[in-house]
Amino acid sequence: MWSRHVDNRPGDRAADCGSSMEPIAVSVRGDGEWVLIHRCTGCDALHANRSAGDDNPLLLVRVAVRPIVQSPFPLERLTAM
To answer: Given its phi and psi angles, is residue 43 left (phi above 0), alpha (psi -120 to 50 degrees) or beta?
Structure first.
């Protein structure tokens, strides 16, 4: 599910970076299509890519729930509010 940073805009192959793109989140479009959000490990650019038919559904779900499982802040503070 990782990719390579080759595009500035979809399909242009104009990016000079070439670094790995880490899947960091999942979004779902109105029609139900899943979209992976990637962050470049070299320049921190963000890109949205449609999920592919051969993407592992379990891995997609793992990316989707990562913010819940590995919260960026202490969840105990929410109950204190």
So the answer is: alpha
Q: Whole-model pTM? A: 0.74
Q: Which residues of 35-56 are buried (b: 16+ CB within 10 A; e: fewer)?
A: ebbbbbeeeeeebeeebeeeee
Tokens representing 52 are 């592919």
Q: Looking at residue 73, what is its pLDDT?
A: 73
- Give the C-alpha distances (Å, rounded to integers) separating 81 from 67, 74, 78: 20, 12, 5
Name 47's bridge partners. 38
Cβ neighbours of 30 (radius 10 Å):
5
